[in-house]
Specification:
Layout lengths: L5 E4 L8 E4 L5 E5 L5 E6 L5 E7 L6 E6 L6 E5 L4 E7 L4 E7 L7 E6 L5 E6 L4 E7 L4 E7 L7 E6 L5 E6 L3 E6 L23 E6 L6 E6 L5 E6 L3 E6 L6 E4 L5 E8 L2 E6 L5 E6 L2 E7 L12 H7 L24 E10 L2 E9 L3 E6 L11
Length: 374
Amino acid sequence: MSASPEVYQLAVGIPITCHAFNKDRSQVAVSPNNNDVEIYQKGRTGTWELLHTLAKHDKLVTSIDWAPDTNRLVTCSQDRNAYVWDWDASQNRWDANLCLLRINRAATHVAWSPRQDKFAVASGARLISVCSFEEENNWWVSKHIKKPIRSTITSVAWHPDNVLLAAGSTDMKARVFSAYIKGVDQPKAIPLWGEKFPFNTLCGEFGSENGGWIHSVAFSPSGDQVAWASHDSTVTVAHGPSETPIAIPTGGLPIVSLIFASETTIVGVGHDCTPILFVNRGNKWEAAGKLDAGQKKAAASSSAFKMFQQMDSRAQQTNASPQVELNTTHQNTITSVRPYEGTPDNVTKFSTTGVDGKLVIWDLLASGMAGLKI
């Protein structure tokens, strides 16, 4: 029998745009669909309690990432700025350091590199800002990846080697670039993707099978595979720049965020309100199924009938509208998914947040899909 996921209602009636955990998973940072970042701490009773509110951005915070080893937060927003937050234990507060992105459109997504010495910010300005710390001037500076991007970048993801960067865009393309920064990275060849990687080198460019814009991108733990989810309700996996990508139809609504749980397993979330598992069996990728199908009562199916039943002769409802309950743990679109427990090549638990204001922690092995022998 499958174990139930851990469900926490962090916000009531407020969507959670994105989330990120610290290293020991004792704190979580979320964006409650506004210009603030809220940090919650898990109490002794197992509930999440609001600990800090980071208020520096002027517009909606679109993405958060938390570096596990340096304990630095990075946030980006529609105000076209990114802040790096350092914890000051003596003052019991988070100090913000502005990074000049030099963009004229909203920042859409941010991600720390694996070594946590730089980060990438996607934007609507048709470019990616790769930011690193300049010791001489004591500030964060950015370099731009521009060509051949032709539209908004929606998602970025780092290769394990700290140099290559995958990016998904609304120009229907997923691309792999070099984000090599002299003085930060060590030059080395990655045979599958190329030999030399000057900054802004295009190492791979892939299209969406049916022309959907890209919602999310991810590298596999080895870095040999890159996957992307597009608005045509497909997840596509490419093994290097030369082999033909494999498109996997989801059979449902579009996926908006995905991660590799292992070299042969992908977890995707989105408008279907449930995580979907994709597995590689015998070098063939396929959708294995939903991790949260049919866990609730059949009452949800009759809620629409009850709503009409409660209407009077003037077609007005005599009582407040009944809440329509879905057959899933999340009651609305899932906005983000992150690894929660395990190693990069063997994620055993993952976390999700959604428009319903819930934070949910899923046990992949106890989800009822473990019998697939992934």
